[in-house]
Amino acid sequence: MAPADPAHDGRSAYLVDGSVYVFRAWHAMPDRFADPAGQPTNAVYGFARFLCELIETTRAGHLAVAFDESLTTSFRNDIYPDYKANREPAPEELKRQFAWCKDLVRAMGLSVFADRDYEADDLIATLAGRCRARRQRVWVVTGDKDLAQLVEEGDWWWDFSRRRQLDRQGVLEHFGVRPDQIADFLALTGDAVDNIPGVPGVGPKTASALLAHFGDLDAIYQRLDEIAWLKMRGAKTLAAKLRKHEAAARLARRLTGLHGEVPLPEHAADLARSTGDGDALDALLDRLGFGRPLRERLHRVRELSPHRPPDGDGPLRPPGA
Q: Phi then psi for 63, rounded to 5 degrees?
């Protein structure tokens, strides 16, 4: 698969899973980074560097960053109270840095989205639909496999830190299922990261084989009697396992699918990057105690002109061209 060239595609919209990159910075950056009051700033420092590199690489004209607002208040917690119950609450020093990261994104002229009822994944799913309606190619910037289910023809899932880009075929090759099967795959295998139980005894290979044969979760349960005749390990007893745990699989499927119709504020209509607010950026950087090199880089990036789409309504530039 030829890699796409994001820096030469003016019609792209970049939808960033901000929480992923804040957490990565929190764990990767040393805790010696602190503001004048001694409060940690390592996560926001690392996130700022990520944001600079992303914009420098893409020269994006349309870019939005979505954040998770809470681990315990999304609609999935109403469906399944133990959803993400295995995760420790974020410490106050990290919550503080999440707020600073949002302020940074706004000062850089980018759109910020967060909601207590919907997760960042749902916000990105909704934004992706709106971008496609405007005939924009969608780049989902994340390291989260859940968001691979959003990849349609012409879109890309991009783990920016690991330099991994996956189109529809790439998702199939990397995860073993098509993008539209990701939610069913996770419903069968479960997702330990989000504390979602699956069907006991059904691992990734079995789930991939079932979906390759049947297509989706509904078809599997409509045709359970066929499973015993499949050439796969444990086929003789697999139908009984699936039947016994059908309720759990159905519940899990309600959790793993993304909500693509979140009511969004007015600024969701246009994700165009602006030059932001230089004074607000300086005030934030003063508060954080960041030095001259990163400060100058952030201002330089803030003022970068985005790539513009070609004139006319011709086809999008093909990946790797």
A: -150, 135
